[in-house]
Design a protein that fits this description.
binds uridine-diphosphate-N-acetylglucosamine; alpha/beta; 394 residues; binds uridine-5'-diphosphate
Amino acid sequence: MLKILAVFGTRPEAIKMAPLIKELARHPEEFDCRVAVTAQHREMLDQVLRLFAIRPHYDLDIMRPGQTLFQITCRALEGLERVIGAEKPDLVLVHGDTTTTFAAALAAFYLRVPVGHVEAGLRTRNKYSPFPEEMNRHLTAVVADLHFAPTATARENLLREGVDPGSIYVTGNTVIDALLATVDPAYRFEDPVLAQIDYKRRRVLLVTTHRRENLGDPMREIYLALREVVGLYPDVEVVFPVHRNPAVRQVVEEVLGGLPRVHLIEPLEYQPFVNLMGRCYLVLTDSGGLQEEAPALGKPVLVLRDTTERPEAVEAGTVRLVGTSREAVLYETRRLLDDPLCYRQMAEAVNPYGDGRAARRICQAIRYHFGLASAPPEPFVPGKICRREKILCR
Ligand code: UD1
Ligand code: UDP
């Protein structure tokens, strides 16, 4: 029996770890899976824990309004010293690139506990973009013993850094496991704002922004472009679930507050959110996870950033890197609203990120690593696209 401690702290980590925690729990004879949350996010994390019925064994409750990177790192590190020290697991699992991820990997290392890194190997090669995520994932990779790379590109990134090839498994991204389990064409919105929108006659732009490097002027530029778009196209509605960061909220309210056909709403539960994505016309975002989900649902994505660590969807043509200048955001959005051919080319459903079996592969890799299985998992190969996604998003 292997004791596994999964550690996470924010909304996206929870969404992407949930399928893995569920899969580990399906095999209680092999795995004793414990869960520790730092709660770097509070409400946004709790939404996901509720949906997937995950009850953490430890909750460090570290979130503070307007928290700094120093505060997150110190609080998480101190709390995790106690948790990992008490549990003494065989493996600590961390996800992606948040400050919780890095602190958990470091805490495990200090206590000489092996680390498995889920969603390993994503890179922009720009230290400050995204900030601090690019460095968080580098630092986590240095500490990790097992690397679960979602794609072959991510594996190559790790190999280039000298990571032992025998410790890397190409698994697909667990976000597609979560997505496939959640999108439902018959889904009905409870939220009155979302329920009253006529998704056939209106073109809904789904917007999210939260990146630290976009706080302030870059976000203002993005919102100014959106304001102009809404004025130009009477059939466009903006749905913007606003991140709870007060620094985001202030600028959103200033530029977009009170505008007709602009719905500024609270962060949505994962289920209504992905079902909204399935019905929208276009996604504008600086999120990482949305760049993986929207292509699977056949939705074009304009990425409001200068770099991306997810080149696969850019290569497939469904994701375009736009940056944050008002002119560029306006130009690219108008192109997709005015030019049906351009829209169709970007709206082709592709899924380079997963096939819904990432969690199973990761479990098999853990078994293999600890000598509980004689063979590693078959690597994830994109191209065998699950047709279900296309059906789901109609
Ligand atoms: C964090 C991660 C980022 C990830 C993002 C996902 C770091 C440094 N940043 O960024 O990598 O992409 O989560 O969303 O790890 N807040 C609430 N309630 C919540 C969540 C946040 O009130 O449930 C507010 C708090 O005031 C908090 C602030 O938002 O201080 C910022 O949260 P923080 O986790 O520091 O940064 P994010 O931008 O959310
Ligand atoms: N998401 C959600 N509700 C929202 C906005 C996003 O459930 O209102 C989900 C989304 O489907 C994706 C994840 O949150 O799985 C992305 O989180 P975020 O953009 O905060 O972080 P990132 O992916 O950039 O780290």
